[in-house]
Amino acid sequence: MDRPLRAAVVGGTGYTGAELVRLLLAHPRLAPGPICGHSKAGQKIAEVLPSLAGFLEGDVEAFDADAVAERADLAFCALPHGASAPTVAALRERGLPVFDLSADFRLRDQAVYEQWYGPHGAPAIFGQAAYGLVELHREAIREADLVAVPGCYPTAATLVLAPLVRERLVAADGIVIDAKSGVSGAGRVARPNTHLPEAAEGIRAYKIASHRHTPEIEQELGALAGAELKVLFTPHLTPMTRGILVTAYTRAAEGTTAERCTEAARAAYAGSPSVVVREPGACPDTLHVRGSNRVHLAYTHDPRTGRIVAMAAIDNLVKGAAGGAVQCANVRLGFDEGAGLSLPATWP
Question: What is the largest CA-CA distance in the chain?
């Protein structure tokens, strides 16, 4: 068997970077290459990421594009938006396939990007990425050397709504998305609103009508609807470490039932190693996907209001980030799509 391909992890000391390294250590065809982190450069990996003690030796490295290109076959970039674009550009100039987990290359319209995020850090390569939601874009990902891994909220929201919008089972207007996320989605840097005493005993909405994942959801669902589409998206911070639960409310088309929605989703995701479509009326639970690359989907019809309630549960750090990135790499490199991602959730 050929040696495993070496995967650099740039931004490897945050929660997403650590999850990438964990998944790479269990992958049959990939292995961790350089682990880069600006603020932790020179420190032992096992000290910065204690969960990897005994699994991975060496130091966190300062990012150097030439050094990474010499010692890696591909790169995952887990940097914040804005900081990621120039790093990605430098790696692409050196010929590495890059799987970027920031928002810098997810949107297709640069004007929309600048409206939500500000000036782009690498406009010369804007628009060159394949959008990395594998279940909708496998063929594009197979040919791409730059893949923009979706955000965590858009992963859950798009997967549960895509079959309904594409099959015209629900109205494309008036979609309301209520989403709840664990605190790890805010990253590893301590902030007052994610400090344990302020997060552990409450639940709150945030960035109402202004969350930056909104245009990403609208882009993907609009493409399926064949027209511009607007959603009302409200995220909430919940007192748990991992997980996202999306509950989306849509107006049912005439004749639409939960059974028809379930059938459409099962047809859309047939053969997917990551999507589980539950029985009509089931209630997905973030605990049931914790630590896995699975998404659980379910649909309920409320005939009294004429609404379809569409629900999705994912682990925001796995299917919503690191696992989704590894899934993209598997498709791009011609590996089994579920390679390194087959373990079930850690339960309870």
Answer: 62
Report how far apart, in Å, the C-alpha atoms of 268 and of each of 67, 149, 272, 347 are.
42, 20, 9, 28
The order of strands in the sheet holding 244-251 is 204-205, 231-237, 175-181, 244-251, 307-314, 295-302, 275-277
Q: What is the CA radius of gyration of the chain?
A: 20
- What digits encode the pLDDT tens for the residues 86-104? 999 999 999 999 999 999 9
The DSSP line for 257-307 is -HHHHHHHHHHHTTT-SSEEEPPTT----GGGGTTSS-EEEEEEEETTTTE
CATH class of segment(s) 5-128 = alpha beta
Q: Where in the chain is the domain with CATH 3.30.360.10?
A: 153-316
Summarised one tens digit per residue, pLDDT across range 309-321 is 999 999 999 999 9
Residues 88, 84: Cα–Cα separation, whole Å: 6
Tokens of 174: 């008036």
Q: Which residues contact 170 (CB under 8 A, 6 or more apart)?
A: 161, 164, 250, 251, 252, 253, 256, 308
Pairing of strands 175-181, 244-251: antiparallel
- Cα–Cα dist 79/210, whole Å: 22
Contacts by residues 89-93 (CB-CB < 8 Å, ≥ 24 positions apart): 89/121, 89/122, 89/124, 89/125, 90/65, 91/10, 91/65, 92/125, 92/145, 92/146, 93/65
Report the topology of domain 153-316. Dihydrodipicolinate Reductase; domain 2 (3.30.360)
Which single residue is written with the structure tokens 């008036």? 174
Residue 38 three-state SS: coil
What is the 8-class DSSP label of residue 61? B
Q: Write out the catalytic residue numbers.
A: 152
163 φ/ψ sector (left φ>0, alpha ψ -120 to 50, else beta): alpha
On whether the pTM is more than 0.90, the answer is yes
Q: Where in the chain is the domain with CATH 3.40.50.720?
A: 5-128
